[in-house]
Amino acid sequence: MLSTLMNIWRSRLFKLTISILLLTLSVMMFADFFKLRGDVDAGIRDARKAMSEALAVQLTVLAGSGNEQAIRQTVDAFVTRSTDVGAARLTTTNGTTMAASGDLNQLSTDTESTLSQMVVPIFQNDRRWGEVRVAFAETQDLAKQLTYFGFIGISCFVLYLLFLRKALNQIDPSQVVPGRVNNAFNLLSEGIVILDTKLQVMLANDAMGRIIRRTPGDLMGQHIDEWPWEFAEDQLAPWRIALEDGGTYASQEPLTLRTPDKQSRRLIVNCAVVGAGEDEKAKGLLVTFDDMTAIEEKNRDLQDALRLLKHSQVSIQEKNKELEALATQDPLTGVNNRRALLARLATDFAKSMREDRPLSVIMVDIDHFKSINDTFGHVVGDDCIRVVANTLAAQCREYDLVGRYGGEEFVVVLPDLTAQQAHEVAERMRLQIADAATNENLPLQEMTASLGVACTDSMPDDYMALIDHADQALYAAKQGGRNRSIIFDSRVTKIKPEAGATAEVESDRRSQKV
Fold it and tell me: Cα separation of 290 and 295, whole Å?
């Protein structure tokens, strides 16, 4: 029931009927205001004037006879017998009230007669003797006026409703469209609007009503430019372009429409002129609206998902880098750990053998490290290890590799360097380590290291054999007095003269490593 009443309230027929009815009542009220029907109060004024003058004549006769009691009885009878009279009073010229009756508050002091009060003078011997004031009831009866206008309103409403219902069937464009065509329009998912040459809506399908959140009937007669479009600056509406061109115009740029519920709808608009021929002028426009709002919302959701995915990928990559660092870096020094060191060395060794290019390895060991730990503690010992690692890394090229082999031992991998070139690097490292005790503010008087150098020209069987050769050279450096670097030789390991020793150590004395 409620939905039926709401549909009636929203119907175009009801709105037109109410509009015409209000116009009719407005015309009637203006006509009464300007008294176009004549002065309806003139007859009432004349009748009241006659009654008042008749009373005045009678009181004049009674005043001449001096019968005051008769005067009072006459005034009382005049007021009580007339339903239109509210009060009456006889007053002499000196202000004396000889007779009064009714509600005297209704009497005013006006000297002129009005519709609600008549003032009639009384003369005696051609002299004014007094006056009679009579107060009458108000002529405007609100209930009667409301009844009158209510009857007019209800009668006109019913008559206009019946008339317009019949007339709209003749002038409504939708009534001319066959039912099958109208149903076909309503089955389309695109919004369809037919406009006249003034760009007023002549027909709209259900899809258009759903887009703009109005019933198709409510759109009838509206100007399409009055809809809440959000045009860019200096943008011309596509239907105006189509109407001016007189052909078909497809708008590739989407338009935005603001619906009554404050939502934005993204629409693709296509326009075509109706009835335009070689000898004919355009009779209207057919405009279609393809709602892309849902697709754009899905695209935005997809973009949000892609952004989240990219963010997740970045986070995963960062986590992988952290995991890789944990898996490949030594936590104390930040250089490669033993596992990463050996993996890289295996790759470089295979490449060296495949391309017949030299590959050198330096093994470094801090001299008397146990004494440092026992004397200064493990904290200072860790500081020494970090300083040595940083010193080794500083002397390397970008593609060289420094790794902690274990404890206070380090291995440096030097691709494309011969044994002699690697030995020069080892000497620079040894000298820098000796200076580090002072430069790094370590609580040591001195800190030295022994270094063993090995190269693939010593013909190792594999990368572990290459490390073993460097280890043997390191052992020789330890045996030779420490704080020196020695190159491994396949026949004999020699202590270089510049290192300050000339002792020889056999290359296979692995069991005697310090």
Answer: 11
The number of CA neighbours under 13 Å toward the Cβ of 289 is: 24
Adjacent-strand bridge partners of 128: 123
- Mention every residue, 6+ apart, whose C-beta is less than 8 A from residue 202: 173, 194, 195, 196, 220, 284
Q: Confidence band (pLDDT; 50, 70, 90) for 37?
A: low
Domain CATH for 229 = 3.30.450.20
Calculate the average pLDDT of the chain: 82
- Model confidence at 240, pLDDT cuts 50, 70, 90, reads confident
Distance CA 265, CA 252 (A): 16
Q: Residue 274 pairs with which residues in a beta bridge? A: 284
Mind giving me the DSSP string for 251-271?
--S-EEEE-TTS-EEEEEEEE
Q: Are both 345 and 278 inside the same structural domain?
A: no
Distance CA(340)–CA(327), nearest Å, equals 8
Q: Report in angstroms the alpha-carbon separations of 81 from 106, 133, 341.
A: 18, 17, 132
365-403: pLDDT as tens digits: 999 999 999 999 999 999 999 999 999 999 999 999 999
- 508 has pLDDT over 50: no
CB 475 within 8 A of CB 505: yes
Dist. CA 395–CA 406, nearest whole Å: 20
Residue 169: band (very low, low, confident or very high) from pLDDT cuts 50, 70, 90: low
**pLDDT above 70 (res 255):** yes
Domain total of the chain: 4
Would the pTM of this model clear 0.85, i.e. be above it? Answer: no
By C-alpha distance, which of 91, 85, 88 is closest to 75?
A: 88
| Residue 366, number of CB atoms within 10 A of its CB | 22
**284-317 core/surface letters (b: 16 or more CB in 10 A; e: else):** bbbbbbbbebeeeeeeeeeeeeeeeeeeeeeeee
**Whether residue 343 sits in one domain with residue 218:** no
Does some domain include residue 304?
no
Domain with 444 in it: 329-512
